[in-house]
Each structure stands twice: as structure tokens, then as C-alpha cells.
Amino acid sequence: MMGFLLIFNGGFMLISALVSFVNHEAATRGILISGLLSIAIGGISQFATKGFKKEIKKREGYLVVALGWIVMSFSGALPYYITENIPSFTDAFFETMSGYTTTGASILNDIESLPKGLLLWRSTTHWIGGMGIIVMAIAILPLLGIGGMQMFAAEAPGPSTDKLHPRITDTAKRLWVLYFSLTLIETFLLKLAGMNFFDAINHAMSTLSTGGFSTKNASIAYWNDQPLIQYIIIVFMFIAGTNFVLSYYIAKGKFKKAFQDEEFKVYLIGVFMLTAISTYVIYNFANVSKLPTDIQLIAHPMIYGELESSFRHALFQVLAVITTTGFVSADFTIWSPFLTVMFFVMMFSGASAGSTAGGVKIVRHIIMIKNGFLEFKRTIHPNAIIPVRYNDKPVTRGIVFNIMAFFILYLVVFVFGSLVFSAMGIDFITSLGAAASSLGNVGPAFGDLSPVNNYDSLPPAGKWWSSFLMLLGRLELFTVLIIFTPAFWKNI
Predict the structure, then answer these.
(1) What span, in angstroms and rounded, lies between the C-alpha atoms of 49 and 159?
(2) Strand partners, 394
(3) In degrees rounded to 5, what are phi and psi of residue 364?
(4) Alpha-helix runs per DSSP H in 194-261
(5) Eight-state DSSP code of residue 300
(6) Which helix (H) or strand (E) holds 388?
(7) Which residues form a coiled coil (predicted)?
(8) How many CA atoms lie within 13 A of 295 on its CB side?
(9) CB within 8 A of 161, min separation 6: which ones?
(10) CA distance between the termini of the chain
(11) I need a labelling partner for 373 at 20 to 30 A (CA). Which of 15, 19, 161, 229 fits?
């Protein structure tokens, strides 16, 4: 399986090498070597293990998912490292892990100086990671004679995995057709709105994967004088934060399913309310004297005194944080202390389960809040059986306990992650921001890691720790942490 993933990874590197070659870039040779090396190691691995039993049970599924992401990240770091555009392997690995986990945190200070081949590879890591390396792999696994249900259960985000089709392979194919189609549509619309084709395809891949890597130092703030581009990205960020199974039904014309879905309704109303609050504060109270003047963030100054501009930037940044896309149209940390705290809390939200977003996910919050309120009734009526209901169906106690365990574990990891950052000498605000953003796969954070800065200021150990938190968050804690438990390795 690792061999297959390396071949898959190397194939995409060759596409980036071709783009680099067409643009006559010096990086072509390094990207080509990286791709061929990945394919060679992958081919040798597959050949050496072809006689082994191809059986993947639940335990092997978790191992394949966790190891798959790590192997892909080490392989994906090669183009940066071999071309010497990122000479530190720690930095190259961080950038790659940030890409595959769709976090969007970067150590690059001058993105626009990167060769186009590497910029495309950077966005490709997002796009591959968006719907999950393993989900894509299982669409092709029948060719290898391996069933993929175990890996889909380990990889698919959220507490449940809705199916579009009884066969898991067909489900993966349908999701990827939708994912690919949406990417093409957004590319086309961004091109029409004024982006060149290269920027359009890169930003489409970053948007649909809720990744956040941009080809510009100023991120989406580069197009602050072109509202249409930002509104197109807003629409596709919202779509990317919606359950892809639900999006599939909507694409088939079954709109009623969306408005019957409890999570979607909360997602829609939540975005509306948070945007309304942010717009009001930005329009009336934003401190114009503190607006950033750094050309790397604001290539075209936004006008805070106009209602449309305030609304657009509020909606853009609310969606960028909730969907964990992490694009930047403005520095939300200077809008007001109230909004700074609100955006910090939003990092723990996440969008819909079954989307490409990171974070806790809205459905978990819904079930935890409902269960909390039902505890009042259970206290008054201790003998009554009062189940939590979601979408008018009772939720089993096992799922409720699993969600509560996940949330508690998430908070414990966040606190411990913050302590580790602070032990490295990083200040309080930056430590909290780094842990919340890395674990939630958001990207921009607070303090020294605010939207006007990047993660280059972290010490090497901090970058490795942040990479580990990104992996934990992307694979929703249990998939990785279960491997460290003694029970996982015991034969029962």
C-alpha cells in the first residue's frame, strides 16, 4: 500500500515537473528526480511484497491511513528539498504536511519567488489531501485485489459515513467526480472573473480542499479591488464546508435533502449570524489607524468605511476560519478584541462532517449541546429513557459517548499542545493560536502567527510538533492516537 501511494504521489510530481519544464524553470530537474525517485521506491516496494497476503482488517486500515499520510509527506517534501527552494528538510516537511492536511500554514516568506512547478505541487498536495489520499486510493484498489472499507472508515471525517452506493469503491469514485468537477467549475469562474489560468487552477484546488495555499504573498487580499473573485471563492468555500454526500444529492437536484439536514441548517444560520456580527463591528468599530500597510498582506487597501466591503471581508474570513480554509483577505486579529476572541472560538467549530474541512465538526457540537440539555430532563426524570435525536432519528448512546470522548480528547490535546509550544519559549497568545490552528487545520493563528505573519518564526522542534498536531487533527485524533495504545497491538 505504501508503494502504491508513492507511485501515485510521484505521478503528480511528474505533472508539476512538466509545468516547470514548459516554463523553462531550473526547478524542473529537481521535481523530476523527486517524482522518479518516489515512483522507483514505490515500485520496488510493490514488487517486493507482491507475494504477501492482501488482507486489510480494521487494525491494518488504521495503520495504512496513518502511515500513508506520513510516507506521502516525506515523499512530498522532496521537490522542495532537492530543488533547494526550501533548503531545510524540517521546513520542507512542515510545508508538505501542511499541504496534505489542508492546514495552509506556511514557512515561506516570498511565495511569489517560487517556480510555477513548485507552486503547482504545493497546491496539488492540498488537492490530494482534501478528499483524502486513502479515499482516492480505494477507488482504484480493486485493481490490486484489496478491499477498501476498513480504510474508508478510518479516513472518512465525522462520526458517520453516509454512502451514495452500496459498494465503497463506487462511493469514492462518485465523490471524486464531484470534487474534480467543482474544481474545474471554480477554475473556469475565477478565470472569467480576471485571474490568469495558473492562479485560477491553484486557488480552485486550495478552495475545494479547504487548504488555503495561495500563489500570492498577500493571499486573497491581492484581489481586494476585485470583489467578484472574492465572492466566487466565498461560494466555493461554503460548498467545500458542506457534507460532500449532501452536495452530491444537491447536484442531482434533490434540494429538499439539504434543508432536511440539521447540520446544514445550523451551518447556514451560523455563518449568517457570525457574518452579521462581524460586519457590524468592522463597519462601526474597526480601528482604521491599525490597518496593516505591509505590502505582503494588503496589496490593495480595503475600505472599512463601506458596507459592502465590510460585509465581504466579514463573510470571507468567517468562512475561511469555520471551513478551516485559511485564506486571508484581511487581518482579522486587528478588527477588535471581541472579534479576535470570536474567531479564536470559531477555530474549534469546523464545518460539516463529510466535508474537506478540519476542526471538531458542527454535528458533534449539535449532539453534545442536545445531550447537555437533555441531562436536565434526565435529572428530573431519572427513570425515563430520553435519547438524543438528530435529523429526527435517535442517536445511539455509543455514538454520543464517542463524540463526548472525542471532544474531551480534543481539548486535552489542545491544552497539552499549547503547553509544549510554551515550553519552547513561545509566548502565551502565540502558543494558544499555534495549537488551535494546527489541530484544527486552520492555518493563520494569533500572536506571531497572525494572518500578516507565517510559521517561519517557530523553532525547528515547534515545526515538527505543529506537523504532528496537523496530522492528529486531519485524521480526527483516534486514527493516530489509537496506534500508541497497548490494546491496539494485542491479539484478542
Answers:
(1) 34
(2) 389
(3) -65, -40
(4) 197-208, 227-240, 244-251, 256-260
(5) S
(6) strand 388-390
(7) none
(8) 2
(9) 152, 153, 354
(10) 25
(11) 161
Give the model confidence (pLDDT) of 360-373 as tens digits: 999 899 999 999 88
Runs of H (alpha helix) within 241-351: 244-251, 256-260, 262-285, 307-322, 337-346
Report the alpha-carbon distance of residue 423 to residue 224 in Å, rounded.
Answer: 39
Q: What is the pTM (predicted TM-score) of this model?
A: 0.89
Tell me the C-alpha distance between 489 and 63, whole Å.
11
Q: Measured between alpha carbons, how far is 45 from 4 in angstroms, rounded to an integer?
A: 8
How far from the centroid of its chain's Cα atoms is residue 335's Cα?
25
Nearest to 347 by CA among 233, 236, 432: 432
C-beta neighbour count of 254 within 10 angstroms: 12
Radius of gyration, CA atoms only, the chain: 22
- 483 burial class (0-12, 13-18, 19+ CB within 10 angstroms)? middle
* Phi, psi of 395, deg, nearest 5: -95, 130
Instruction: Give the list of residues 6+ apart from residue 438 with CB closer than 8 angstroms, or none.
Output: 103, 105, 417, 466, 467, 469, 470, 473
What CA–CA distances, in Å, run from 66 to 101, 229, 479?
12, 36, 7
The Cα 187–Cα 178 span in angstroms is 14
Q: Are 138 and 5 in contact (CB under 8 A)?
A: no
Residue with cell 487548504: 211
Please tell me the number of Cα atoms within 13 Å of 460 on its side-chain side. 4
Nearest to 212 by CA among 492, 447, 463, 443: 443
Whole-number Å distance between alpha carbons of 460 and 288: 36
Q: Are 451 and 444 in contact (CB under 8 A)?
A: yes
Q: Yes or no: say if 279 and 314 are a contact pair by the CB < 8 Å rule.
A: yes
Evaluate whether 336 touches 304 at the Cβ level (below 8 Å): no
